[in-house]
Fold each of these.
Amino acid sequence: MQTHKQLFSKLKISTLLDLALLTPTSYTDNNLSSSLTLGQRNIFQAKVTSLNSYNAKLMVKFYLPKFNQTIQGIFFRVSPYHYQSFSVGKEMVIEGKLELYRDNYQIGQPKVVKNIGLIVPKYKSVLKQDDIKKLILTYLSMQSLLDTGLSLEEAEVLMALHFPKDMNQIYHNGSLLAKNIQVLKIVEAFNHLKKLSNKRIDYQAQKALCGNISEFVEGLPFLLTLEQKSTIKSIQSDLAQKERASKRMVVGDVGSGKTMVILASMMMAYPSKAILMAPTSLLALQLYEEACKYLPSFMNIALVMQNKEEGEYLSADFIIGTHSLLYKDNLPTAPLVMVDEQHRFGTTQRQLLESLARDAEGKHAHFIQFSATPIPRTQAMMNSALLDVSLITKTPFEKKISTKVIKKPDFPKLLEHIKVEIAKNHQVLIVYPLVEASDSIEYQSLSESREFWEKRFEKTFVTHGKDKNKEKVLIEFRERGDILLATTVVEVGISLPRLTLIVIVGAERLGLATLHQLRGRVGRLGLESWCYLFTHNESNKRLDAFTQTTNGFDIASLDLKFRDGGDILDGTVQSGTKFKWLDMGQDEEIVAKAQQRVESLPKS
Ligand code: ADP
Ligand code: MG
């Protein structure tokens, strides 16, 4: 005998709703048939009227009082059991598939039914039927379901699925009723969010930060977008708390204006200190320049990088830097810690960063992360119990980027277009799938193509992910290059404002999220731009869909449609959770409803 606890651990489940969601995969209806239906399983009240054996077969005649009809049962493998069970005069309930044989009704191998009048559920699980039924019977009840926070209707649906009284409550024309599916979806979302919210641990903040930002906002040369404003508002209410240190992720497409949110947050922290970490020195430098440009001049801003420092970080109000920050042993503690492009940091760096976000007393800094990897709204909501998420889904100005799928015959035209852009003093990026030639890939590599471009264009620059001089090459290219040849590994983090044309070789090999990141490199400042997806594929629906939108959040949803699941926030968040009923591409309303419900639950 296994204990219930052992059974639960075999099922790998931990909550009552986990159990409730293990719904039966089929049912056997043991209610008596109301008619004689050929070709289907029938179930009859019957009385044996005769027994005959013939050629090792046993023929049993049954009289069905309800239909005033006699039918024949036939057994091919006969044992003493049959003679005993089907002796003349006995009454019983039998079941089996009803057929017509020489104008007579017949059932092959009829079975005697015991659970008459019941609908018997069948479960698919690692446990024996009896074991899982025992668990269901022990733990599931209207009351226990209502106690989890489900509504009356939801609890009723779950009870009906596990303890069915009428098949019409469950199926219609052989498929689960839409109403039941809706309930299973919301229960799935609710259960997931509830589990996450129990996992969330909140820490005391070092300080409440309530610095004034209105002067900063009014001094900007443009109006903030609605989403920038609402994100800033959420951060303001986060930082104003002392009981609970903020844990927020701001997700916004490349160019959606996250830097302004960073700067506004720094203003909120002032006169306390804030630290901002960026994944590369180029990005850190860029952020430093923007901070100096937009923040009031009375503020001390310092830059910390491996081979370069600006300002005195020991006394600065704002410290901006690369991961070099993590290795300074005299770095001041700050009540606000932010990370830009967090998806580009490794786990080790993240762990170090956590310690950076804690002071000597174990109180935490308000912690805000920024990510340029759009995720579908449903996914953001599903993670929100663990981490607050703000989405910036719209860019301040519409980018003018045309995306086209091109093939080999289009190459001469492409070459012409590249010349036109360069003549306008614009720049071109060509992305190859690999550095060296490989048999496994039917596209040219960076090394193979290099000569072609260098012959035709004097200012051709080359770099790739493993290139030690990558950043230097990029800076030089930004100043005076025409064409940059690179691989996808070069997720060019810096802004190349003159870049207006990108060619992605073998585009069908890349995920939509990656294509989107690459395309985001062109037209950064609103110049009309082009993204060419070079492929040998005859037709590709995914690439075609990609050419139709430039919104990263739409693309994340497309990604869900074409693959299964997209990129998720980070390691601290449950990633790649597969849902049985929920469709992350579609069920935004359901997830929102579940989220509200979880938020309204009393804190346990
Ligand atoms: P992200 O970091 O999200 O990729 P940035 O913060 O670098 O984007 O912003 C991209 C560009 O848009 C910058 O040049 C920035 O000055 C500009 N920008 C930001 N917010 C606005 C706005 N509300 N209106 C107009 N331009 C804006
Ligand atoms: Mg940015």
Note: The first helix runs from residue 4 to 11.
Amino acid sequence: MSQPKTIYMDINATTRVAPEVLETMLPYFSELYGNPSSMHSFGDQVGGAVKKARQQIADLLGAHPDEIIFTSCGTESDSTAIFSALQTSTEKRHIVTTRVEHPAVKNLCENLDRLTGHKHRVTQLPVESDGTIDLKRYEDALADDTAIVSVMWANNETGVIFPIDEMARIAKNRGILFHTDAVQAVGKLPINLAETPVDFLSLSGHKLHAPKGIGVLYVRKRTPYMPFLLGGHQEHGRRGGTENVASLIGLGKACELAGQNMRKENTMVRVLRDKLENGLIKAIPNTILNGHKIDRLPNTTNVSFEYVEGEAILLHLDRFGICASSGSACTSGSLEPSHVLRAMGVPFTAAHGSIRFSLSVYNTEDEVDFILEKLPPIIANLREMSPFWEDRHKIGGGGSCGSCGCGK
Ligand code: PLP
């Protein structure tokens, strides 16, 4: 059987490198292989390209180039920001974060005591059923010994956007450092750090059509800072290790393209996403949208098909070349639904059947139509085999239907 054409709707997992980005990078693997830290002019011309990339990234963020530190990925940027805050304010042991953070922040916060040997208090704020945050609860969680707030800008699973501008202002007024994991936001949302007072921001190249293995930590001028990787004097002593030159140059180009195209692309992607989402909800009974309908990335939809397993859906989609993600973590062996959906209180029978489609301008209306044709029968077949579907009118207790509103 010939391999079906790939329909890639897993952009929040990773993106293809844009052709213009690849083209910009290529010379730095071959003829322009100098070290940007070298004193000779061969290295220096690479240094010039690094400088340009730093400026392109700063421009997209509304930042100053000196505030851009290159790292290896979003995860490193997150760790650097949080460890830096804890090391520059050792008397403060409290961290405020949310229950829906990416593991890059969540697992770090949950393992801080083991990693640092200090007694840290971590407040993981709950979220509402639509994935949004209660600002009053956030304000109440801040304490005199809070060293840092670390809150994501946009959620990778649901696309829900947090009010980072307001949250950063609240922290600032209390003299608390504010970090945002903006890995899913940069390139998809307009960001202007000249106006939004965050101290640290993380981004990752492979989420915006630059390569994997390159990240940035933005550190606002005059923010107390300690490097995570000690070593050479690269990045003005703020991150040791020879820079991933070709990739950071690609990231610079990707940021330039995002700045030019974001508005137009968001409109196009939103139309495709909405067509897919509305089509699925209309065609498949017991389909639930996870996350706020409006305050969300234009490219992301997370839907639950009640009473079926997300992993099984993904396998069937894969047979048609359709790439998406599931909200359950069966692949990690835990069989637990995603921590994000659990935090939102999505019922067990829905959380297990959640699928995330994350789109880009590389997707087409034909692809959306193809999914709308293939997915409804997949769900119907899986439900035929599902004992939960059979018992759905009993689930919810009391012998009456707790779910589908059938009145049984
Ligand atoms: N933060 C968020 C919100 C993400 O979605 C991801 C990756 O999926 C990361 C952090 C980690 O980024 P990286 O893969 O560059 O380490």
Note: The chain is about 40% helix and 15% strand.
